[in-house]
Amino acid sequence: MSSVPAEPSALRDRAAPQSELNLAERFLDRNITEGRGGRTALITRDGVCTYAELATMSNRTGNALLALGVRRGDRVLLALSDSVEFVAAWYAVQKIGAVTAEMYTFLTSSDYVYYLDYTAAPVVIADATTLERLREAVGSSRTRPVLLVVDAAGADLRGGEHDFAALVTRQPAELDAVPASSTDAAIWKFTTGSTGRPKACVHAAHSALASYEAYARGVLDIGASDVVLPVPKLFFGYARDLAALFPFGAGGAGVVFAARSTPDVLFDLIARHRPTILVNVPTMMQAMLDHPSVADQDLSCLRLCTSAGEALPEPLHRRWLDTFGVEVLDGIGSSEAYHIYISNRPGRVRIGSIGEVVPGYSAQVVDEAGTPLAAGQTGRLWIRGDTAASAYWQDREQTERTFAGDLVMSGDLAEWDGDGYFWYRGRADDLLKVGGIWVAPAEIERCLMTHPDVVECAVVGVERNGLTRSCAYVVIRPGARVEAETLQRFAGERLAPHKRPREVRSVAELPRTGSGKIDRRVLRDNAADDTPGGP
After folding, report:
1. 512 and 403 share a domain?
2. Are residues 165 and 65 in the same domain?
3. Which of 143, 193, 252, 337 has the greatest number of CB atoms lying within 10 Å of its CB?
4. CB within 8 A of 284, min separation 6: which ones?
5. Are residue 354 and residue 449 in the same domain, yes or no?
6. Order of strands, edge to edge, in the sheet holding 146-149?
7. Structural domain includes residue 290
8. Are 267 and 291 a contacting pair, CB within 8 Å?
């Protein structure tokens, strides 16, 4: 059987759905009432922000939102860079019983129109990074939200726009939390949009609490002494939860910074603040390893590094261990299931796998009919757990295909090895039918990634004369020269003939979505428009 039961755990006793739960009260205010108000909650380039300071700003922000007409159940969009204000606003929305939703800060104005219309948010919290594009979007949107602008000095605000600092500082510092039931919508987590328009997975507050108990406590053992540094930005739930929610549950701290994540920025932050947990993605792990100063970096402060969002190639994992000696807990999660549900564990990592089922969840690998498959067979990954979303917003058909109570019928392909470890095999909607035989792009990618000169790889299907061909986009190691035929021959020696990539193209970098995942739509469009080529 490929069914792995939930591990024995007090999870369901500790985090069972509560009749009343407010995340701001549970994760932020609780630190005040239990005497931790003076402890550091957030670390920034400008200094630290204590729990008491953050709670005060959050209360004032909540009162400001109420003054602007936000009511229980309304969505509030956050479209601003990582900052204390971002975190305070997120908790403020939760405290007044509204619904948080976040947008990437470097989208186009047309993308913002989609989010404005989709959410019908009465208020959008913005900053200088997003203000101009949001103004354009508001002009084209069916909605007319109020813009609350952080760092608005010199922004020449217009009608319907408010200076965040000016409005918030005038508000009372006290605010009563609005209790939410276990079924009330509290958080919208957007899908990444790598295969289509982002959809909102609707979660109750209980999803966040259950995930904290299951993953943050049950796997990472996050505690009061932990300082968490995220590589992805806070709009991505993977990073926000690990940097500004989960540490707060244990009295720990997160690092927030507005700059884009680069190896230089991250190495500097690690040297300055000595975090204990690095929330990472494979792309950045590769960039950090390739940095000219890598030999001079001291990462000994880290007790672990997490990896998610995309597959972690085995050669990259081993190179990270050889270079930094920091254990990597690779795992898989989704917006549909709130956060990580399968992960490697400290002290028992199996390199190449995505790990074992997180406490409180169960997993199965099934065929197209939903029948469990035996160990060693590849099929769709189904997950059961208390953190399943209730629906995709306004998409009944897709909701019924994906959710059934606490069951999430994911589109991920996986294999179970019989020892409790799962191995990622790509996405079901990425499968290619080449010569009448199904081919998983992830298998070709894993093969090409073992070539010493291939840094990254993504395989997509392209139509040529009515036939589907596999096209591999590769990023070659700087200074190396590799012909397309060489890589095709390399793959052909290791894979079945029908899995050999029919086209290989060299690119400087792979296109990515706002959450850092490879944007396969862009690659497919490029492959369809261009003539075949090689490195």
Report:
1. no
2. yes
3. 337
4. 231, 261, 263, 266
5. no
6. 161-163, 146-149, 123-126, 75-79, 99-102, 185-190, 200-204, 391-392
7. yes
8. yes
DSSP secondary structure string for all residues of 387-401: T--SEETT-HHHHHH
* Claim to verify: residue 444 and residue 403 sit in the same structural domain: no
Amino acid at residue number 32: I
Q: Phi and psi at residue 529, in whole multiples of 5°? A: -85, -30
CATH number of the structural domain spanning residue 514: 3.30.300.30
Q: How far apart are CA 330 and CA 322, in angstroms?
A: 16
User: Does residue 511 belong to any structural domain of this protein?
Assistant: yes
Give bridge partners of residue 207 from the DSSP assignment: none
Q: In which domain, by residue range, is 455 found?
A: 431-529
Domain CATH for 50: 3.40.50.980
Instruction: Based on the fold, state whether residues 128 and 61 are members of the same structural domain.
Output: yes
With a cut of 70, say whether residue 515 has pLDDT above it. Answer: no
- Residue 73: count other Cβ atoms within 10 Å of its Cβ: 12
Domains of the chain: total: 3
Query: End of a domain among 136, 163, 179?
Result: 179
Start-to-end C-alpha separation, the chain: 44
Integer Cα distance of 66 and 372 in angstroms: 50
Pairwise CA distance, residues 269 & 299, whole Å: 11
Query: Residue 206: pLDDT above 80?
Result: yes
d(CA 231, CA 279): 6
Same domain, 121 and 220: no
Q: Are residues 166 and 225 in the same domain?
A: no
List for the chain the helix, strand, coil content (%; round to 5): 30, 25, 40
The residue that leads in pLDDT, 92 or 442, is: 92
3-state secondary structure of 138: helix
Does residue 162 sit in the same domain as residue 217?
A: no
- Structure tokens of 12? 């369901």
Backbone angles phi, psi at 255, to 5 degrees: -105, 130
| Contact assessment for residue 80 and residue 86, using Cβ atoms and an 8 Å cutoff | yes
Q: pLDDT tens digit string along 210-230?
A: 999 999 999 999 999 999 999
Using alpha carbons only, give the angle 460, 461, 466 rounded to the nearest 5 degrees.
Answer: 165
Angle at 17 between CA 13 and CA 21, to 5 degrees: 115
Q: Would you say residue 514 lies in a domain? A: yes
Residue pLDDT, tens place only, 235-284: 999 999 999 999 999 999 999 999 999 999 999 999 999 999 999 998 89
Q: Return the CATH number at 404.
A: 3.40.50.12780
* DSSP 3-state of 67: helix
Q: E-assigned strands of 334-466?
A: 340-343, 356-357, 362-366, 378-384, 391-392, 403-404, 407-416, 422-427, 432-434, 437-439, 454-464
Picking from 234, 257, 260, the residue whose alpha carbon sits closest to that of residue 246 is: 234
